[in-house]
TrEMBL record:
It comes from the Eukaryota. It comes from Buceros rhinoceros silvestris. One of its GO terms (cellular component) is cytosol. Signal peptide: none annotated. One of its GO terms (biological process) is regulation of protein kinase A signaling. The keyword RNA-binding does not apply. SUPFAM superfamilies: LigT-like. The keyword Transferase applies. Keywords: Kinase, Transferase. PANTHER family: A-KINASE ANCHOR PROTEIN 7-LIKE PHOSPHOESTERASE DOMAIN-CONTAINING PROTEIN, RNA 2',3'-CYCLIC PHOSPHODIESTERASE. One of its GO terms (molecular function) is kinase activity. This is A-kinase anchor protein 7 isoform gamma.
Amino acid sequence: EGQKEDLGQEVSKKCPRKPPNYFVAVPVRDDQILDRIEDVQELIFTKEPDLLRALLPVQTMHLTMIVAHLGTEEEIKKAVLALKQSKTKVEAILQGKDLNMTFHGIGQFNNQVVYVKMSEEAQKTLSRIAEAVEECFIAMNLDISGSKDFKPHLTFLKLSKAPSLRRRGFRKISSDLYKEYEDRYFGTEVFSQIDLCAMRKKKQESGYYYCECSINVGSRGTEESKE
C-alpha cells in the first residue's frame, strides 16, 4: 500500500506542468503597423478609459511561435542552439523569397483578447516555419508542452493583463470599442527575424523583451550575415 501511495505522490509531483518562462517570437517592427495599432488603442481608451491597463505596449508587438519552460542555464543554452539550428530549415522553407506578413482587420478570442489578424497566405508559410522551429526544440528534449497550436495573431489588448478589471466586473471586451478598425489594413512586415525571449527578465531599453538569441532569416538575414 505504502509503495503505491509513494508512486502516486511521485506522479503528482511530476504532473503539474511548469509554467512557460520563455517564448520564441517573430518581432513586428513596421512603423505603419505599430502606428495603426496605437490608433486603435487610443480609440478604445477614449471609449473605455478603464481598459488602459489591459493594453499591450506596441514596443512588445510580436507573433508567438512556441512557449517553453527553461529551468536551467543548460536548458537555455540548448534552446539557443535549437533556434540557431532551425535557421537552415527556415531558409529552406523560404527558398530565398521574402515572406510578406500582411496584417488586416481585428479579431478576438472569447472577448478577452483582441488582436490584429494576419493574411491567410502568410499564415500557411509561417505555420510551417513554426513547425520547423518546434522540431528543433523537441530534438533537444526541451519542455514546450505549454505551446498551443500556432495561430499567428498580433495581440494588443488582453484582459488577463489587468486582473483588477475582472474584480470590478469587466468580463468582456465589446467589439463596439474597435469596430471602426474591424476591417482596416494595418500594414505589411517582411519576416526577417526570430527571437528567443525571456518572459520574466527585465525588458530591453527599447521596451522589447530580453532576448537570449536572435536569428536573421530571409533575404535581409543573409545580407546582414555577409557583413
